[in-house]
Here is the input.
Amino acid sequence: MLCLRSRFIRSSLMFAATLALVGASAVARAHQPAAKMLPEDTLAFLRIADTQNLKDSFLKTSLGRIASDPQVAPLVRQLYGSGLQALSRVEDQLGTSIPDALSIFQGEIAIGLVPKEDGPPAAVILLDAGNQLAAAQKLLDHGLEIAEKNGSDKSEEMVDGVKFVTIRPRRLPQSFTYFVNDTTIVIGTDKDALKNVLGRWDDAKGKSLATNAQYSAIMHRCEGTKEQPAQLTWFVDPIATVKAFSRGNATAQIGLALLPTIGLDGLKGIGGSMILASGEFDSILHVHVLLDNPRAGAIALLQLGEGDVTPERWVPNDVQGYTTVYWDVGTTFDKLTTLIESFQGEGTFRNTIKSTVSDRIGVDVEKDLVPALAGRFTMTNWIEKPATSINAQATLVAAKLKDADKFQEVLDKVVAKFPERFTKKSYGGVTYYAVTREVRDLTAPEDLPVPAVAIIDGYLMGTNQVKFLEKIIRDKDDASNSLAKSLDFKLIMSKIARQSGEAKPGMISFDRPEEGLRMWYDLATGAKSRDRLKSRADNNRFFGALNDALEKNPLPPFAVIAKYLAPGGSMITNDDSGFHYTRFTLRRD
Here is the structure.
């Protein structure tokens, strides 16, 4: 492993270093955005529009502002310094400090994966150094020395007035080609791919990734607005990528030939974007799954529905997170059965479900379980305060039932099948079943989570913490304590409504980052955690540095951190083009 890392560092530095030889003679031209310079059939693409802008925007986010707070900054600086000390060997090879190396790239950074007629796809990387090109050349000079010492071969070729340099590392099978034009360094694993990039440098005409129909459709949904442009975007054509990497693999080719039959060729592309510190938002994440229309085969299994997303009355106001989704399980089950049995024969899938699931749990999945589900599923998280262990966090998953009284018989059958695994209990007039767990050599068995299942308010519920279930039973009739009445939930729902427009979400979620971070804060400052950290500090460099930093710069009161945190939410909408996922967090002033 160490040998491979060393080879990687040496080859990367060598490859970058030789760029200094051509930097001074680079022809200055303003290039098009990366998407217009890569070919139309580009398989995958990642782009940072402006590196400096992304850095500046991150500092304005909640995490950036917390790290910059006067009461937190000393701790962050010491931890950062300890991290740099651990990477001192890397800095020696770079010939400069890591912060200086990271500050070199100022503008666009883009990575593209492009297909070749023969062999695996080629990688193309564009790195804009902006006004730091001189600093980049200094770094590259040092790398060139390392490359020459390791015996790498170098060849040069002039292409349209620009010098192309190819490096062939002695111990690596892959050669690299690069050129420097204007203030941009372009690196690739295929010379022809780089020539195509140079050919589009200042000419936006002709086909390119930007004219790719799938890419354009996804970016139309993800690039943001003129006021809130995306700082990072990405795209991948999954089917074409798999095909490109599986050339010459007979088994893979057989599998790919089946894609149209099972409908997976209907997956046209996946892409997304990220926007930081924009207006009222701390962050916005978009992901779009582009699907064929009409949907068929495996793609048609995605049966996202829509309905009322108001939290059920039993969801407490103090939960850390809440998600509800509408899913037509019955239709999905029928379509999955038809799809699988079209290959394996009639009855095969049903027989498999019967032998592997139904017979084992004592309930017929197809007749008793699937038809009983109403199509709404909810998951919520709650943290017991103060958090003294990781088990303070509880998760509950609930499925709405069409007939709760009838399904009680189904649940009783499952419990009767495993009498040694369930203990029947009652709390607040509600019957539930605690899952029996074997305790082995635990110093604090009371901290071990106790799972439980129950039917409450027409929902089948399962949780990893019986404490959460009992809290729900205790508080469910108190309307004032419902999440639906929470002002911050209403605020997030208003943003979701504005973001979704006319589309009705099939899934929404709400979360409070403050509550999740509070748990880790309580654990980090608790006596048990501090004692455990101290006991490990002497024998572990990482824990030693962390313990030393916390000793010299204790964490401030949690209120100092909490003032930067705001709630967030997410949603999934379904339209003719596919599924669109949006996640956002609000920004505190």
In short: The longest helix spans residues 133-149. The chain is about 40% helix and 25% strand. The CA atoms of residues 6 and 88 lie 14 Å apart. The radius of gyration is 29 Å.
